[in-house]
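Lab notebook, bench 4. We co-purified these components, and the gel suggests they stay together. Before we commit to crystallization screens, I want a quick structural picture of the whole thing.
Request: model the full complex, all chains together.
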Amino acid sequence: MELDLEVLDETERIGFLLRSLYQQHGFSRYRMSKFEEYDLYSRNKDFLLSDGVITFTDTNGRLMALKPDVTLSIVKNGRDCPSGVQKVYYHENVYRSSDAEEGFREETQVGVECMGQVDGPTVSEVLNLAAESLQMLSGEYVLEISQLDLLGALVDSVAIDETMRMSVLRCAEQKNLHGIREICREAGLPEGAEKGLINLLECCGTPKRVMLEIRKIAEEYGCEEAARQLGQCMAGFIGSEAEKHLWIDFSSTGDLKYYNGIALKGFLKGIPVPVLSGGQYDALLKRMHRKDRAIGFAVFLHRLERLTREGGEV
Amino acid sequence: MSEDRQNKDFLNVALPKGRLGETVYQRFAAAGFECPALLENSRKLIFENASVGVRYFWVKPSDVAIYVARGAADIGVAGKDILLEYRPEVYELLDLGVGKCRMAVAAPVGYHEDPARTLRVATKFSRIARDYYAGMGRDIDIIHLNGSIEIAPILGLSDVIVDIVETGTTLRENNLEVRETIVQISARLIANKSGYKFKREKILKLMDGLGGKSE
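Here is the predicted assembly.
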């Protein structure tokens, strides 16, 4: 008997299509067949997308967690790869709570992770795969890209302590430029101290339009390497179908304790929240005593329920 | 293109019902997003002007951020108090400089705080109050109320209140006084993060018209 693909619902079908895509690109499957101890997540709670974790006591008395995340498990169970890059994909259910009133939900995500000697070409390959994933979901998508080392340096140029740093980053994430000016004024910084950061956040547009200005800002703040990395990644898209869907926007941030380098988010027309999110997370690996570098992204399948076939490529 | 697809390209705007919404609408209209039907005396809640591609709807002020975060509206106008309390995942694009007031701690006139005791705080804005006192390392007991906050200290339900203060008249009439200002409040232009990507031209045109610097 052959499998009738009509039995799959839309998000299941998309999940299998994405798996097929990642397999074609040489990624092998990671299965999270066992649970991790709660301690793994409590030590890295800011990395989680969930506000809470469902815990249970295992048969041997250990406090375990019901999968709030997959990446942490991949990092914990992996071994450093001194030559080359280990490329895996996963298709897992995770259990998250983002709103205390709504409680926990089962969510399905498909994602890819690259760990090892992650270099420019690997970062470009992952960005290309993210664009291909979004294209597969809908012809009307935006792949938003930022560079967190550059953003972090500009935030540090105004933040006088960690509390201010967090507040400024939150404003950056909200495109709240008046909020940044107010925070700097209240902190007693000289007028215009935030100019570089504001200019960077205003550098929002296609790579062709904004890269020159980004390079100028980066040079002024001694962050040429960060701008060079961003420029190289963008150069890989020149002349491609994906080029017109690319958007540089430094409001795409992440927790700088874990993330660095390139960060990315994917949006589809008609869906109010990002359907894809990821970036480089060398800092997480370092916290977990690993020497590798890493990049990955996840596609949130539960957020695609509102996606119709109209206008899409799925 | 189907009618449904065309409608998706309208700029959907959630306005807070009431005087603030009407004031803000006048500025939106002056910026080129007029919709004369909006000011007609009717019970309708949704109005559109196809010629400029805008659709307005009146919603309860505290719900504006929900409509925007969930994508039913591309943009909206919400008070900073709501943004601080509920932290919706939206862009905060402009401070519109209207609907100005402040979030403050108020107490009965002559009240002396005992730092050795847990401070009982009555408020509608639990997160703002919790964050404010956490920043001071002060142990507090939050009493979440939905209205008539001013009577809580009078009846002994709380020691102080955290609430919005405009003119201070209600406080004075209830023998209360402002002890500290937590944050200045005003109306903000907010946008859905995804809607902003796909309707950016219109949103930037509106921001330019409102006097905000666009990218």
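The radius of gyration of chain B is 20 Å. Worth comparing against the SEC data before the next meeting. Chain B touches chain A at residues 5, 8, 69-71, 89-95, 135, 191-195, 197-198, 213, 215 (CB under 8 Å).
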